[in-house]
Design a protein that fits this description.
Blueprint lengths: L6 E4 L5 H12 L3 E5 L3 H14 L5 E4 L6 H15 L4 E4 L14 H29 L2 E6 L3 H4 L6 H20 L4 E8 L5 H4 L3 H9 L9 H12 L10 E4 L6
Parallel strand pairs: 1-2, 1-4, 2-3, 4-5, 5-6, 6-7
Helix pairs in contact: 1-9, 3-4, 4-6
């Protein structure tokens, strides 16, 4: 996979799966702009990437993904600076584990605003550039719980189910314009948050996965990059499960 001459935006790219995705695109020659919730976090991620890859072209921005106007302004800056936007990875999101009896409107809305509205805003902002240039690729980060649910925090799987719906619907609508839309549904992945979970909890999880290991951020990043690449040029409307067959 070669992304030379390609401009990629990765939301939520300052850590975890997002950072690994940015790193993978950079190693494949892309110009990458990552987003973070705060400019300070974006700048730190960019500095780390430039230290690792001195020749990389990478930048960081911090629009409010819940605001279409904010996203449009930020993406306009990317398009003006680099001339085009070829790939959008909608990775930013927030997880939630509150029991249903404790749910408030604010809890539910907080998850839906970023995980669903944020994906809408970013896709809405980038599509005009892709239409103008004759094509592009959008890859959304979903989750295995969008298919199987989870025992608490129902807003999170609900939001990811909505992302799946957007993925399939936009793939149909935008396909005639040369824009492919796909999603990756990660399983349990060893991010910094998972590293804090006790071994007594992790080991039974691993025992339920046929591959007998947790996913690594690069496992998800590689799948995202594949779906964004020319090698996946006839793939659209797919929600690709990258979970080690961790399904029940």
């Amino acid at each position: 996979m070669n992304f030379e001459q390609k401009v990629v935006i990765v939301t939520g790219g300052s850590r975890g799966i997002g950072f690994s995705t940015v790193e993978t695109f950079v190693k494949k020659g892309a110009t990458v702009v990552l987003t973070a919730s705060r400019q300070e976090n974006a700048d730190k991620a960019v500095a780390k990437l430039k230290e690792l890859y001195p020749d990389a072209t990478v930048g960081g921005i911090s629009p409010d993904l819940r605001s279409l106007a904010s996203v449009e302004e930020a993406f306009r800056g990317v398009a003006e600076k680099y001339g085009h936007i070829d790939v959008l990875v909608n990775n930013a999101g927030v997880s939630e584990r509150t029991s249903f009896e404790q749910y408030t409107e604010e809890t539910f809305e907080n998850v839906m605003d970023l995980n669903v509205k944020g994906v809408f805003n970013c896709t809405r902002a980038v599509v005009p550039y892709m239409v103008q240039q004759g094509g592009g690729a959008v890859v959304n980060t979903s989750s295995m719980v969008s298919i199987y649910g989870q025992p608490s925090g129902m807003a999170y799987p609900t939001s990811k189910f909505a992302v799946n719906g957007m993925t399939l619907s936009l793939a149909r609508e935008l396909g005639p314009k040369g824009i492919r839309v796909n999603a990756v549904a990660p399983g349990i992945t060893e991010t910094d948050m998972m590293k804090a979970v006790p071994k007594s909890i992790i080991d039974p999880m691993i025992a339920q996965i046929p591959l007998r290991r947790l996913g690594q951020p690069e496992d998800i990043a590689n799948a995202i990059c594949f779906l964004a690449s020319d090698e996946a040029g006839y793939i659209s409307g797919v929600v690709l499960q990258v979970d080690g067959l961790a399904r029940s």
